[in-house]
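Let's practice the habit of predicting before peeking. Look at the sequence and jot down your guess about where helices and strands might fall. Then scroll down.
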Amino acid sequence: MSEWKEVKLGDICTELSDGLHKAPLFVEGGDYIFVNAKNLCDGVIVDNDPTKKTTHEEYLKYSKPLNENTILFSIDGTIGNIARYKGEKCVLGKGACYINPNPVLVDSSYIYFQLQSPHFNSYLNCMSTGSTIKHISLKTMRNYEFTLPPLSEQRSIASILSALDDKIAVNRRICENLEAQAQALFKHWFIDFAPFKNGKFVESELGMIPEGWRVSTLTEIAEYLNGLAMQKYPPISDNDAIPVLKIRELGQSQCDNNSDKCSKQIKPEYIIKNGDVVFSWSGTLMVDIWCGGICGLNQHLFKVTSDTYPKWFYLMWTKYHLAEFIRIAKDKAVTMGHIKRGDLEKALVAIPDSDTLVKMSEVMRNIIDKIINARLESSHLASLRDTLLPKLMSGELKVNN
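Done guessing? Here is the structure:
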């Protein structure tokens, strides 16, 4: 510890600034993501809003000096989201500051983990401004003081924590591949009807479908339970508290220290558990399998379940209609675009005969289970990383231990 020294974040960086203080020109199908706080999740930049895309021309006007060492950190609205820059096509908004550590002085991976330490989180909590919308100034970021070990030790500490992050990243890629497989199978079965092309087809509301199949709607194959206004159900103690699942948490696939809390005494049907399908129908529309632990379902989100049909079936059909739902919400948008239950009732689905559905389920259930297991493993690894991180950063736990 004698070789560790006190430094300020601004003094060991070549650049520390924020992004654009206005919206760029958004275009449908743009190649560049407009990155703000909600786009920084679990170390990566996520493309979670198809309406916030822009062009190469806008990028050239507003680009920032990002490089292979750049760290992105959210400083406006939601504070504390973080990501490494990996060359993504993006334009930064004011909610994301970029930090370019000086490679002569520090290891960028070490700084990446330092910005996730309890020491830094405590500093943010003390220094943030704003009663409802929190903000951290660039000056405050630059003035953050911490103890820095020698460069060789920085690299050793970062390598341990990075190994856990690398496995989490591998799991993420596995899930992306499995999700692509599920989408391809769904299209093969329900859009192209490829396995049934030599059989007899009949007319339906969806056009020609295999004989023995029928047409229904989303609300007939699953229940879409809207969440509660969780501010009405505050916890009575710390032991009674569980995180609130809102659109932000669904988008980042986890709850965090910034998540609201509610009482665990709410009705059981509004408790979300690992493996539940959740659909945000307002604001940013998305559908996903939740693997972020027990939490309470907030309003503007549906918990999707069925006593009749398998999870993969109502999950894939809801995802299939998502693009149309986004279009509907965009057309209705005044302050926050949304869909209505009537839109679910109009969304048609093709239901195969029972024998075919069973055979499909044997394949698709295996894919969904692998996705859930990989995500849960990643949650466990993240918990281990978060336990080790403060001990390594403080010197309490030496690298050789």
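How did you do? Residues 5-148 form a domain with the Adenine-n6-DNA-methyltransferase TaqI; Chain A, domain 2 fold (CATH 3.90.220.20).
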